[in-house]
Amino acid sequence: MDGQTLALLVIADILLICVLIFISRGAYNKLRTSIEVDELTSFPNLTKFDELLKKELEEKKGHKYAVLMMKIKGMRIVNEIFGEDESNRLIKYVAESIKSSIGNNIASRMQNNQFIIGYCFSEEKEILDLIHNITSKLEQYSGNFRPFALYGICVTEEKNETPSDIRSHANMALECVHDNMLMNYKFYSAEIKSTVIREKKLENEMLYALEDEQFVVYFQPKYDIETGVTIGAEALVRWLHPVEGLIPPNEFVLLFEKDGLIIKLDEYVWKHTCMKMREWLDKGYDVKPISVNVSRVNILDEGLKQKIIDITTEYRIPHDLLELEITESAFLENADELYAAMDYFRRQGFTVSMDDFGSGYSSLNMLKDGNVDNVKIDRAFLNETVTTENGKAVIKSAVSIVKELNMDVIAEGVENEEQAKFLLGIGCKKAQGFFYSRPVDSEEFERKIFLNGR
Predict the structure, then answer these.
(1) Strand duo 230-241 + 290-294: pairing
(2) Which of 353, 360, 391, 451 is most enclosed, with most CB atoms within 10 A?
(3) CATH says 200-451 is which class?
């Protein structure tokens, strides 16, 4: 082999090595990209997001910076009811809505229904505008499910906070955001930490508490305003904690909804209500209709109809003695399923009511589509409106419209005689509230309504 041939072979080997290095580097970069990027949304993964966030905080010292933890409600239900393809389509839409709203800021998808956004801002209003922009885009989704997002927000301070610390604080704020269509965000504060710790403690005990039957059903009587006669009652749940004592529902019901255990809690209340009604019927008491709450999560439960039929059959409760109260916010979501369920129950002889009327922002519009027997005016709506002449006019018109639609109307949260007289004057003849009676346990209810009433 002459020198020229040897030189050519050496050059060829070098070229081959260079090609292999180039291919390997390309494969490595491709692998690294696939690891760092979420395939479904093209967002960086959480590890990469933390790198970007750390860099952002260093480069933008002196500027205000916020991290928003964003959670899409009901994704598990979407996946179970509508399938994985619809779930993925929704996730992609959410990601595009975020991308088109954040400009040059950063975002990541943490898990199936949760995203995180890093956002540089000058005034707090810019954060709220961002939330509004994303919300507006989500409302335009064309699928089978109307997405709704909750946000926990941590505004970084001038101290050595790691990306993990900031994310943790934003997540704590998110944990404290509950089901409110009008206030779907919360900023992190020192008080939030203690709130989250307590809620986590209760969450860890909820399932055992159900199994241990630590929950008791209280009853709040409903009255005819004109005659003062009892016309029924509402069943309400209380947690009789072995250590903390009686825990009111505002401290745990939303936690049950968040964890999906509200289905079991509702069923627990239905069963114990019917059990007590059967006891009173067997004693010969004149039992009036008792209403129970049906959470919106239950509306998507395919077994809902059969569960209620089975419970009323087991305790031999006439259907006209059990009233099903569906919260107004349920009418904003899953309307088709809700209307189908309502029609079924009404055909079976149950009374169906819209609860919390006036707590949302499209109550009157929903009345024309929701075929219900009764409408219950929300306590907040009542308290806010009867204090002004304009407010009185609004609630008077609402009651008139409900009656024009051949629905009955009842007001909850009546606290004084002035409210009762006002309601009677505008044609609302039924009420419940502290002015008449606080919620009481079954023994006191029996004494108060059946024994003392005899």
Answers:
(1) parallel
(2) 353
(3) alpha beta
